UniProtKB/TrEMBL annotation:
Residues 2-87 form the 2Fe-2S ferredoxin-type domain. It comes from Actinomycetospora cinnamomea. It comes from the Bacteria. This is Ferredoxin-NADP reductase.
């Protein structure tokens, strides 16, 4: 598990293996839109403010992956114990 902080509200949620970051964020009140929920459409794109995302989408180019400043929370997870998202 890892933690995700929703920067706009200051809420922190724990993301267990059974939950997507998107689902965990929604349970904490985030209203992020989504469509495919498979990391292919880009609808759920979210800005990463801190932490290192574990990208599992098929959208980002290598340099975008390395930059780590945005992620697709329907599929992507975290390499760090904590992610801070602009949600
Ligand atoms: Fe399609 Fe996340 S909902 S990439």
């Amino acid at each position: 598990p890892f933690e995700v902080e929703l920067a706009r509200t200051g809420t922190t949620v724990t993301v267990t293996p059974q939950l997507s970051v998107l689902e965990a964020a929604r349970r904490a009140g985030a209203t992020t839109l989504s469509s495919c929920e498979q990391g292919v459409c880009g609808t759920c794109e979210t800005t990463v403010l801190a932490g290192v995302p574990d990208h599992r989408d098929t959208l980002l180019a290598d340099h975008e992956r390395a930059a780590g400043d945005c992620m697709f929370p329907c599929v992507s997870r975290s390499c760090t114990d904590r992610l801070v998202l602009d949600l």
